[in-house]
Every structure is written in structure tokens, then in C-alpha cells.
Amino acid sequence: MNKSMSTIGVLTSGGDAPGMNAAIRAVVRTAVAYGCRVKGIQKGYMGLLEGEMIDLGAGSVSDIINRGGTFLYTARCEEFMTPEGQQQGAEMCRKNSIDGLVVIGGDGSFRGAQKLAGLGINVIGVPGTIDLDIACTEYTIGFDTAVNTAMEAIDKVRDTSTSHERCSIIEVMGRNAGYIALSCGIANGAEDILLPEIYNYDEEVLVDHIMENRKRGKKHHIIINAEGVGHSTSMARRIEAATGLETRATILGHLQRGGSPTARDRVMASLMGAYAVDILMSGKSSRIVAYKNGALVDYDIDEALSMHKELDSFALSVSRIMAR
């Protein structure tokens, strides 16, 4: 055990994700089990710069595992993107006797953690983002809940789309990654899935597919559109003009970030949060927690952020076969 690790800080940064509270809870209770004190840093890196911290004990995180969002709050912080802001963040860690810092967030949050690590702060990253766009890990906290939330909403849109015999374009989140769209496309049986990684913006292909399906007797046409492709409303107008079929756009938006986390997100968040503290207590630093091949592992933060991630080619092929 790393006896120099007496106080651990924890913050959530960037976009919130269901399961972040479960991860915070796991960090706190695991740290307490090791005999460490815990400081919860509110509002992400902004709160770190402004010294917004609260002492957390095992009881402080009771009854939060089922809550969406993050009870530590989160915020964007442009000041922390500057060398001066990063230096101030490192100084605030030292001023508050934080021996190790657990950062729960996505790619941008990890790049901030990387800067702190370069300034001598012991940092561990825990992947919390609904986008699933962290290259070093096969799973990120919040993804499962976001997909389930979107799936239920798309099922409801399908009902009304069928009733009105219309085409529906449903836009899901994911920033520049198509993982939510691909999963929903398979889960909801969509006729088309538009993914930023591979979409060529050829709307004639969509129009032809819609008309072919109508000739085969289909009463609706569901298009799942990833946020990275976007322009769902204008796309709906163009498709309606080209096909003569009533076409509507539905942008699900931030409802995908909210809601009580699924069992999978609660369990994975708990395991990842506890694992982060174990890493710190073992003497490691500058690491990112990841899930690979059915097990928790950790990567050097520089190595993790240099990795590239691609969509699952088999899932893509299945989605195309299922859409026929």
C-alpha cells in the first residue's frame, strides 16, 4: 500500500453521464476503506481552480447510486485549457494536500488530467461519457443508459411513424462518434443508420431505399442519425420533397444524458471507481482505467490518449443485414 497517499480528490468533468454518481461513491468508499480522506471537487476543473471542495465520507455518498447526473456537478472551464490555469490547478491540489486525483470524464477531461500529471500530480482517469469514444476502453460509464433511453424513445417514435405512414429521422447524441447511433440502429431495427465515421452525405441513396421499402409494403421508415452527421431537420425537408412522403425529424438531445443509470452502468462505474483507488494505493500514477476483453486494466495516460478507435466492423455488417 502507498502510505504517502493520505488524501484523494475526485471530480467529474465535461458532459455528465448516468453512473458518475456510482463511480464517485466507489472512489469515496474504497478510499475510506484504505484509511484515506476524500475531497470532492465541485464543478470539475473550474471548481478545482476556485477551491470549491467538500470533505466526503462513506455516509456522504449514501443513496446516490441510483441518481443520474453527478452530485459533484460539472462545468466547462476555458481557463483550465491554458498553461496558467493548469499550473494553478496543480498548485490547488498541493495547497489542499491532495495526494492523488481521480478524474471521471471523457477525452477532454483526460487531456486536462494529462496536463496535471505533467506537473507532478498523481492522476487516475475513469472513463465517464455516453459517447463511448475513449479509444483505450471498450466501455464507458453512461453509454448503456444513454442507449436504453434513446431506444425507448425511438420505439415510441416508431409507433406514431407507423400510424401516419411516414419517414422519421431520429437524431441521437454521440458528438463525433457513432456508437449510440449504431447500437440504437440495431436495437430499434432502423432502416438506415447515418454514422459520422462512414456517411458520405449521398441523400439519393436514402431516397432510393425509402422508395424501395415503400414498394415492398413498408408503412414507415426509421433513420437513426448520429449527432456528428446532424442537420436532421433540413434533411427531413429534402427527403420529403424528393419522395413525396411525410417526413419528420426528432432530435432526442440531452434527455439521453439523464435518468437513473442501468444496472450495467452502476456495476461498471462501481468497479472502475474502486479500481482507480486501488491503482493509486499501489503507487501507480498517470493512468487511465479501461475495460478490455472482459477485465479491468489500466494504461499510461499518454499511451491511452494516442490510441485510435474504430466502429466494430461486424456490428456494422449486422446492422446492414438487419435493415433489409
Structural class: alpha/beta
Low-confidence residue ranges = none
Order of helices and strands: EHEHEHEHEHEHEHEHEHEEHH
Oligomer: single chain
Shape: elongated
Q: What is the strand content?
A: 15-25%
Mean pLDDT: 96
Helix content class: 40-55%
Strand segment tally: 11
Largest sheet features: 7 strands, mixed
Please give the radius of gyration in angstroms. 22 Å
Q: In angstroms, what separates the terminal alpha carbons? A: 56 Å
Please, how many helices? Answer: 11
Task: Explain what this protein looks like in three dimensions.
Helix 4 (107-118) links the parallel strand 4 (100-105) and strand 5 (123-127). Helix 1 (20-33) runs parallel beside helix 9 (263-281), helix 2 packs across helix 3 (83-95) and helix 6 runs parallel beside helix 11 (313-322). This protein has eleven helices and eleven strands. The protein has a seven-stranded mixed sheet with strand order 3-2-1-4-5-10-11, sandwiched between helices. A four-stranded parallel sheet has the order 7-8-6-9, sandwiched between helices. The model has no long low-confidence stretch (mean pLDDT 96). It has helices spanning 20-33, 44-50, 83-95, 107-118, 143-163, 179-187, 203-215, 232-243, 263-281, 301-306, 313-322, and strands spanning 7-12, 37-41, 53-56, 100-105, 123-127, 167-172, 192-194, 221-226, 247-251, 287-292, 295-300. The longest helix is centred in the middle third of the chain and has 21 residues, at 143-163. 42% of the residues lie in helices and 18% in strands. The N and C termini lie far apart (56 Å). The protein is α/β, with parallel strands linked by helices and 324 residues long.
